[in-house]
From TrEMBL:
Pfam families: Glyco_tranf_2_2. CDD domains: Glyco_tranf_GTA_type. Signal peptide: none annotated. Keywords: Glycosyltransferase, Transferase. Residues 65-189 form the Glycosyltransferase 2-like prokaryotic type domain. It comes from Crateriforma conspicua. The lineage of its organism: Bacteria, Pseudomonadati, Planctomycetota, Planctomycetia, Planctomycetales. This is Glycosyltransferase 2-like prokaryotic type domain-containing protein. Belongs to the glycosyltransferase 2 family. The keyword Membrane does not apply.
């Protein structure tokens, strides 16, 4: 059955090429690999038998136009089944057949099983067999009891690896481009899916997340998280990313009252403060 893989990217060329290599090793190859560069042109590897589609969206050069890029990828898709795969993700050989069969048989929105790799795992001559023993689960994501696990926990949706039909994507209306940059746009997508009656669940379709440094809390996205959180609150009457907002408040960067509809920004973090939050663990946990 036909399907397309959609990847959005800024930088991370080595990660993109590793993802391309994993597509060549997949037990089922996509009809299309759609790659949308954010504020940049991309140079992906060619894959025999796969139509590699390249596009670009432009933002302000700083905030990642994540929602717009994902919507553009969907616009370029010519198949009814779509698998969105973050550029940091390497597809296990069984990811695509497992995800595609689930979407085509059950419909709805399905999040894959993302495992996180330590630094150096994919920098040399890695093989697919090396990755599973090195990878770890994220503690905030459920351990799957069955291969397909329907769920009402829409708030646990992350856009790193998910499958969806074109019909469901259009029912949701795509990603809300009112979210600018990092933070909240994927939770908004899931909440909109719930409101639209699109079923959600987790599926044992394994992807391996390649290492990159992260900030904990993400002070490097401070302004975007604050503005996106306020947008989310106005739209859904709940605060997203609350642990991050509380961490910002503990650093006297904001005044955050969960009962209020706005956040008072006291100051922006300094470069030194941002640098001090960089950690090197596999997934920032």
């Amino acid at each position: 059955m036909s399907f397309s893989v959609m990847t959005i990217v800024r930088g991370r060329r080595n990660h993109l090429w590793n993802q391309g290599r994993s597509i060549t090793e997949s037990h089922r190859k996509p009809d299309q690999w759609i790659i949308v560069g954010m504020d940049e042109d991309v140079d992906p590897p060619s894959i025999p038998g796969v139509d590699v589609v390249i596009d670009r969206v432009n933002g302000d050069g700083e905030r990642l136009p994540l929602a717009e890029a994902r919507n553009r990828a969907a616009d370029r898709c010519s198949t009814e089944t779509m698998v969105f795969l973050d550029v940091d993700c390497i597809a296990s050989p069984t990811l695509f057949p497992t995800m595609v069969d689930t979407v085509q048989q059950a419909g709805g929105l399905w999040m894959g099983d993302v495992r996180y790799l330590p630094k150096g795992a994919t920098t040399d001559h890695w093989t697919m067999n090396d990755l599973m023993p090195l990878s770890v689960r994220h503690p905030l994501q459920p351990k799957l009891i069955t291969d397909r696990q329907p769920s009402q926990d829409y708030h646990l949706f992350w856009s790193l690896c998910f499958g969806i039909s074109r019909e469901a994507f259009e029912t949701i209306g795509g990603f809300d481009t009112g979210y600018e940059g990092y933070g909240g746009e994927d939770t908004d997508f899931a909440f909109t899916a719930r409101r639209a009656g699109v079923p959600f669940g987790f599926v044992a379709a394994v992807a391996f997340h390649q290492h990159h440094p992260v900030c904990k809390p993400p002070l490097n996205h401070f302004s975007q998280i604050v503005s996106n959180a306020e947008r989310f609150r106005r739209k859904w009457d709940v605060w997203p990313m609350e642990s991050w907002l509380r961490a910002f408040a503990e650093r006297d960067l904001i005044r955050f009252d969960p009962g209020s509809d706005q956040i008072d920004v006291l100051r922006c973090p300094s470069k030194d403060e941002v640098a001090a939050t960089v950690i090197d663990s596999p997934a920032g946990f």
